[in-house]
Amino acid sequence: xxxxxxxxxxxxxxxxxxxxxxxxxxxxxxxxxxxxxxxxxxxxxxxxxxxxxxxxxxxxxxxxxxxxxxxxxx
Length: 74
Known about the structure:
This is DUF1272 domain-containing protein. By secondary structure, the chain is α+β, with helices and mostly antiparallel strands. It is built from two helices and three strands; from the N terminus they run E-E-H-E-H.
């Protein structure tokens, strides 16, 4: 199950689990759309391809909440 990290690792902007606009690699490094575009859709940590993260909504989000641990490296 995806961890659903709450922020962009590069700029720190909020990325709610129930909204679009987040991009992840296979290691779940997480970036906002603007940073992913600036990174040419390549993860700077592992070199993996950044893909759209699916949203988690409704009852599923209630049963499986997103992570609250922030990963911004500032």
